[in-house]
Write a structure and sequence with these properties.
Keywords: Cell membrane, Membrane, Transmembrane, Transmembrane helix. This protein is mainly alpha-helical. The chain has ten helices and no strands.
Length: about 270
């Protein structure tokens, strides 16, 4: 079983390095479906594993000054409290109704996976629409001062709300910390450069997952053996995937990954 878990980590790490998103969403269903690991353990282990991988990614983007800390702050205002609340909710329900929360988590993971799969399929169309929206905003003349004030005020509120929704979902399922946020940031801030968009997404995902890790660590739900075995396989997997990404275009990989995620989600539902 040990080397099988490390091989799963290698596969997930390879997909993360290859596509930059979506690969991590496979980890929880792999642990649940293939290794029959209890859903609460699977979610806690996935969040811990993802926290480590996002930390390394965050360091790289911060060094290259490709993180928008203002947007990260507003996202964190919603995502961190929501993640902690969802983890506490899981722990309370797990103590009172263990079988019920496991069933709920499995179904939630399934629904989120299907949603992430749809996002991946329509990502090219979505990004093209966002690019057109960005060009339209650049051509648009600056409005009155009062109108500009309202526009600035609404954006942080919407960002906090997005962070809260994603934080709640990630705390319950461990899925979507990157894929869901990157689409929301691109929609809310269409003028943001693509590299800064990715860097902001990775760093906020690290903070969100760190909050989930703290919650599950305090409850003692993390299986460190599983986490170490996953990291043992995933670290070289990320390196191999990053090198391979130069030769394999994402336009061919994202549909395949979306189908895998969708089928995994339907199986869990």
């Amino acid at each position: 079983m040990d080397y099988h878990i490390s091989f799963a980590g290698l596969l997930v790490g390879f997909l993360i390095g290859l596509t930059g998103m979506g690969g991590g969403s496979l980890l929880a269903p792999i642990l649940i479906i293939l290794f029959r690991i209890p859903p609460v353990w699977a979610v806690a282990s996935d969040i811990t594993y993802s926290t480590v991988t996002k930390a390394f990614g965050s360091i790289v983007y911060i060094q290259h000054k490709q993180v928008n800390f203002s947007i990260v702050f507003w996202l964190a205002c919603g995502s961190i409290p929501a993640t902690l609340i969802s983890v506490l909710l899981v722990q309370y329900t797990h103590k009172q109704y263990a079988s019920l929360i496991n069933s709920i988590i499995v179904h939630l993971i399934g629904f989120v996976l299907v949603f992430v799969a749809v996002l991946l399929l329509f990502k090219p169309t979505l990004m093209l629409w966002i690019e057109h929206r960005q060009q339209a905003k650049i051509r648009q003349k600056t409005g009155a001062q009062g109108s500009e004030h309202r526009r600035i005020w609404k954006r942080p509120m919407a960002t906090i709300l997005v962070g809260a929704v994603v934080g709640l979902m990630v705390g319950l399922t461990s899925v979507g910390s990157g894929t869901l946020i990157v689409a929301a940031i691109a929609f809310l801030y269409p003028r943001m450069p693509s590299r800064e968009l990715i860097g902001t997404d990775i760093f906020q995902a690290f903070l969100l997952l760190l909050a989930g890790f703290v919650g599950y660590f305090a409850s003692g739900e993390i299986n460190w053996t599983i986490v170490c075995l996953l990291l043992l396989g995933s670290l070289p997997g990320v390196l191999i995937g990053s090198i391979s990404s130069k030769y394999i275009p994402n336009k061919y990989l994202n549909p395949v990954l979306a189908v895998i995620l969708g089928l995994s989600g339907l199986k869990l539902i």
